[in-house]
Amino acid sequence: MKNPKAIVMLVLSVIIGLMATVAASGWVVQQGKTASNKVVVAAVDIELGSRLNAQMLKAIDWPTSSLPAGAVTDPQVLQDRVVKTSILRGEPILDAKLAPVGSSGGLSAVIPEGKRAITVRVNDVIGVAGFALPGNYVDIVVNTQIDKEGSGDKQISKIVLEHILVLAVAQEANRDETKPKVVNAVTLEVTPEQAEKLDLARSVGTLSLVLRNQIDKQGAETSGMMKQQLLAGELLKTTEPLQPTKRKSAGPRHKSAPAALPASPPKITVEVIKGVQKATVEF
Fold first, then answer.
1. In order of start, what are the domains of the chain with their CATH numbers?
2. Alpha-carbon distance 61 to 73, whole Å?
3. Which of 13-27, 65-79, 109-123, 252-266 has the weakest average pLDDT?
């Protein structure tokens, strides 16, 4: 005989279990909705200076607790905005990575306020064998002739600019490239004063780029290197007169007696007869 109470308890347990499952599912769904937000990210890799459009962007759910500062939630507000740094696919579009509203695309959009871009000609040696890439920092060295009073022309190499950002090489500004690229022109980011100095330096001598560490901002206090200084060591070796060596004293010396003169050889007497005359000659 079946127990009615057991059947009732079983039915109640099933009902309560179903109700708990439905409530838990609703809570999880509700928590998911409140814990995330829509964020616009890059749908493709975007190079700096590019103008954004709808095909480059997409909106995804992003955890609210880790929402990055300056994130954009509406793709429409990014239409025709210009990025001033490279953005990888899936990376959120932040306001700090965008040029001001109304900026035109290209390299001019990535130049900060108060800075300028200037291009200098290089070759495989001057351009650090192609390792001076966009995003790297370089020093500028000029080799020229100086004229001092009464000394004539003298050759000198001097660092004239330090910690200069490379904006582009040739016509490419992609900073994600790591392979060396030999080009014939490099575009640098400078201040107006540095632009004047660089323009004068390339007109009076030959320029060279010196690649430096990305995080090293310490200046180098140098006075330049002249040819006379460079060869000073070799000149000293070839022009230094020989110094006489001094003998060490070995104590008091006794005067030696003067050496005896060699004995003169014995004289030779020869008798010479000329006719009736007779004479004697000594040798």
1. 36-106 (3.90.1210.10), 111-228 (no CATH)
2. 10
3. 252-266
C-beta neighbour count of 225 within 10 angstroms: 15
Return d(Cα 270, Cα 283) in angstroms, integer: 8
* Token output for 276: 């009736």
pTM of the model: 0.57
| DSSP strands (E only) in the chain | 36-42, 57-63, 116-121, 137-148, 152-169, 185-190, 206-212, 225-226, 269-274, 277-282
Q: How many CB atoms lie within 10 A of CB 120?
A: 17
The Cα 79–Cα 19 span in angstroms is 48
Bin 224: left if φ > 0, else alpha if -120 < ψ < 50, else beta.
left
- Which tokens belong to 242? 């020989």
The CA distance from 259 to 256, in Å, is 8
